[in-house]
Amino acid sequence: MSDGSAQSEQSCLLEFLQDEWRRRSPVQLRRGVWISQHEPVVADALEVSVLSLPLRRVWWVDSDGIEPRQALSFKRYCDYLSPRGAQAPYEIGMSHFAAFPQAPFYRIDHTRGPLDGDGWRVRVTSSAVEVLERRWIS
To answer: What is the DSSP string of 23-56?
Structure first.
């Protein structure tokens, strides 16, 4: 995949995710949402968590726009969440995406709260993101 094509898919995914947060959880979007891009998924397996894959890039997304951030800021936030366990509410949502080996397919995981999330397999075209299947829901 060329750099221009990858950049176009990335932009399309970021806009899609911002729109999804605006539609499904506008309150969280006003507070802010982390979006992270991870290394490609090596196998099309249900049990693979995108968050467990090596991190490539992160963005901070809110009602005002999408802003690149340093990966260390995101890692610190994840470290902060770890000891809190599933009982504490998440004030800040997260979406993670990684490419499948077969372009232009991606895996997306969303976390809106401790028991509120879902994962999708999507296809990215030049102008849109199409949700092909819901892989998990909580």
So the answer is: HH-HHHHHH-EEEEEEPPPSS--TT--GGGSPEE
109-118 as b/e, with b when 16 or more CB fall inside 10 Å?
bbbbeeeebe
Strand 33-38 to 55-62 pairing: antiparallel
Are the C-beta atoms of 44 and 63 separated by less than 8 Å?
Answer: no
- DSSP letter, residue 1: -
> How many domains is the chain partitioned into structurally?
1
**Is pLDDT above 60 for 46?**
no
pTM for the model stands at: 0.86
Domain that residue 73 falls in? 3-137
For 43-81, give one letter per residue: b (16+ CB within 10 A) or e.
eeeeebebeebebeebbbbbeeeeeebeeeebeeeeeee
pLDDT tens digits for range 58-74? 999 998 999 999 999 99
